[in-house]
Specification:
By secondary structure, the chain is mostly helical. Helices cover 54% and strands 2% of the residues. Helix 2 crosses helix 4 and helix 6 crosses helix 7.
């Protein structure tokens, strides 16, 4: 099940494309303003449905107060209950870290999926060994640790996507989500980071009581990891040699919460 969406149409697609042209924006520039990938924006201009949580980004990019929709396209109200029906809603996260933690994973995983697949589509057209730093535009370039930029090739993105899908299946099954590797930690951290802007903007719509908000923390991922090593090693400009467990060569290794520990 996908996140609540606005039904697409040729008329809405035409309005979006015309407005972008009026502002003199390329698809890449409009997508950047909206916080989506170029592939996703192109789907909007092709008349496909628009996820509800993306509508504000589109309005921001096009300087619209709201989407100029007709009777056929209806904007559904944000609802936590709707997201609870999403296939990636994690009962484990909800029970242990609060409903907003589960919501963060639902929204963040969808956003991260778009970022990864957009970059993979571009890299597939380039010579083998090309990395995301060579792309005209890539959201992942600013999200992933800078030290290992030139390692982020098609093969790595495929691995990243596969592990994201694995964590999503754990969420779907309602089983415990464990970060066994640096790659797991990185995915969960990025999902949470990418979801925050949307969640902060929709606080009133969530209609959670004080107890539920009190349980929620943006740092729930660090509680899940039981440390903040991902920040210490990957996002503090610390140089890592190949022996460090957070070096790129070890990202896929099963290191944390293993039976040996």
């Amino acid at each position: 099940m996908s996140i609540n969406a606005i039904q697409g149409s040729k008329s809405l697609a035409k309005k979006i494309k015309q407005r972008r042209a009026e502002l003199g924006l390329t698809i890449e520039e409009a997508a950047s303003r909206a916080g989506v990938g170029t592939k996703t924006w192109s789907r909007y201009e092709a008349g496909e449905s628009i996820r509800q949580d993306k509508s504000k980004g589109i309005c921001k990019a096009l300087n619209w107060h709201q989407l100029e929709i007709s009777g056929k396209e209806t904007l559904t109200e944000f609802s936590l209950d709707t997201y609870k029906a999403h296939e990636c809603w994690s009962e484990y996260l909800e029970k242990n870290f609060g409903a907003i933690a589960a919501l963060s994973f639902v929204i963040g995983s969808d956003i991260l999926y778009d970022h990864i697949t957009d970059d993979m589509e571009q890299l597939a057209k380039m010579p083998k060994g090309s990395h995301i730093g060579q792309l005209n535009y890539s959201f992942l370039t600013d999200l992933l640790p800078a030290q290992f930029l030139m390692y982020y090739d098609y093969d790595f993105l495929y691995q990243l996507l596969s592990e994201l899908q694995h964590l999503s299946k754990c969420a779907q099954a309602g089983i415990e989500i464990i970060a066994h590797s640096v790659l797991d930690e990185l995915i969960l951290y990025l999902c949470n980071e990418e979801a925050q802007i949307f969640i902060d903007a929709e606080k009133e719509s969530l209609k959670l009581n004080r107890k539920e908000w009190a349980k929620y923390s943006k740092d729930w991922v660090f509680d899940l990891f039981d440390d903040m090593d991902i920040i210490t090693f990957l996002y503090s400009y610390t140089y890592l040699n190949s022996e460090n467990p957070y070096h790129f060569s070890h990202w896929g290794d099963i290191q944390f919460y293993t039976n040996e520990r």
